[in-house]
Design a protein that fits this description.
Blueprint: E1 31-40, H1 51-60, E2 65-68, H2 75-87, E3 92-100, E4 105-109, H3 121-129, E5 134-137, E6 156-161, H4 168-180, E7 184-187, E8 199-206, H5 211-219, E9 223-227, H6 232-252
Parallel strand pairs: 1-2, 2-3, 5-6, 6-7
Antiparallel strand pairs: 1-8, 3-4, 4-5, 8-9
């Protein structure tokens, strides 16, 4: 993979440590803010671009890590893990899935076992929790997005999704998360490499932290949000692709 604009940061020797191996760099006794995009799709589900392009885009966007959250598959994550290992990239990639529950989509992070689809949100959350992962309600209250219209007993709520051009659903999600006292996170919900990093969750971790500590910080609300709304042209492009796929599926039935 070419270095691109982020070439100076891509190899293991360019930074004090390699986050993917479990040691998140920080000065002794201090905390380190990690900029993470927790909601990214690849061509392993309904995304346009491959994993290699996505990883390059994440580095170019000065992210510290991303979660590959393809629909009901972990294959994109495993491909990212392979590329990072072989190329020695200094980028944290969190195992993730956007699970199709009986009520809508749920992001699950931190486990390498695929949660079954079609179960209730509560059953899925429990499945993930007992395996050490966390669950985040994805784009709640949004029409036409397989969204949930309630907030279950999850670990966090996605209150900023960069695909919401008007932002009404984001505002409602934020209000409901605040009422429940739940941590609030952001995600780009990127389906193309150029939109990776439009929704960033900044997570505070301590010296020597590993993936489990990152998940614990999210669960504990030690986060803040950086956001940039998706451009109308990118939004339209994604909607056109989504509409074409839906039409093809109907014609093939």
């Amino acid at each position: 993979m070419g270095d691109g604009k982020g070439g100076a940061r891509t190899k293991e020797g360019d930074r004090p440590s390699n986050r993917r191996s479990g040691g998140l760099r920080s000065r002794k006794g201090s905390s380190t803010p990690l900029r993470l995009d927790l909601h990214v799709h690849s061509s392993f589900s309904d995304g346009r671009d491959g994993i290699e392009e996505i990883l390059k885009a994440a580095i170019d966007a000065s992210l510290d890590g991303i979660a590959i959250t393809d629909h009901d598959t972990l294959e994109g994550y495993f491909e990212a893990e392979r590329i990072i290992r072989e190329e020695g990239l200094d980028l944290l990639v969190i195992p993730g899935v956007e699970v199709s529950t009986s009520e809508g989509h749920l992001l699950t992070l931190g486990i390498r076992e695929l949660p079954p689809s079609g179960r209730s949100p509560d059953e899925t959350i429990e499945f993930v929790r007992v395996r050490g992962g966390i669950s985040i309600v994805a784009h709640p209250y949004h029409l036409f997005r397989h969204a949930m219209y309630r907030i279950p007993d999850c670990d966090a709520v996605e209150v900023y999704n960069s695909k919401y051009i008007f932002g009404i659903a984001n505002l409602w999600a934020k209000r409901m998360a605040e009422r429940r006292g739940l941590p609030m996170v952001a995600g780009s919900d990127s389906h193309m490499a150029k939109t990776v990093g439009l929704g960033v969750t900044v997570v505070d971790v301590e010296e020597g932290s590993d993936l489990g500590d990152v998940l614990a910080s999210i669960r504990g609300g030690r986060v803040k949000i950086e956001s940039k709304r998706m451009s109308p042209s990118a939004f339209v492009s994604q909607m056109v692709r989504w509409t074409k796929k839906r039409l093809r599926r109907r014609l093939n039935k």
